[in-house]
Amino acid sequence: MDYSKQITNRLNRVDGQLHGVLRMLEDARECTDVVTQLSAIKGALDRTIGLIVSENLERCVRTSIAEGHPSDEHVKQAVQLLMRSR
């Protein structure tokens, strides 16, 4: 599957944030600061997962419609992926 540039950019940003948290730990930063950053990372990852699932779902549904197949199974799979990520 090809992933959009937006997804790659989001994950690169998360990577930078995670490296920042590691530096915070090395610098013995306050717990609240570390947890705040980790919460931001978690939110960014959750949004990225949603984007990946929605892009995949859209692609699968379009393909199913073009080929004359029902898309119900793709929708069900997308919902399961989202539920698993929570």
How would you explain this protein's 3D organization?
It comes from Paenisporosarcina antarctica. GO terms for molecular function: DNA binding; metal ion binding. This is Metal-sensitive transcriptional regulator. The chain is an all-alpha fold. The chain has one domain: Metal-sensitive repressor, helix protomer (Methane Monooxygenase Hydroxylase, Chain G, domain 1), CATH 1.20.58. It has three helices and no strands. Helix 1 (5-26) packs antiparallel against helix 2 and helix 2 runs antiparallel to helix 3 (72-85).
Number of helices: 3
The whole-number mean of residue pLDDT values reads 90
Q: What is the radius of gyration computed over CA atoms, rounded to a whole number of angstroms?
A: 17 Å
Largest β sheet strand count, sense and barrel closure: none
CATH superfamily: Metal-sensitive repressor, helix protomer
Helix fraction, binned, reads over 70%
CATH topology: Methane Monooxygenase Hydroxylase, Chain G, domain 1
In the CATH scheme, the class would be Mainly Alpha
Low-confidence blocks of residues: none
The total of beta strands comes to 0
CATH architecture: Up-down Bundle
Shape: elongated
Structural class: mainly alpha
Count the domains: 1
| Range of strand content | under 5%
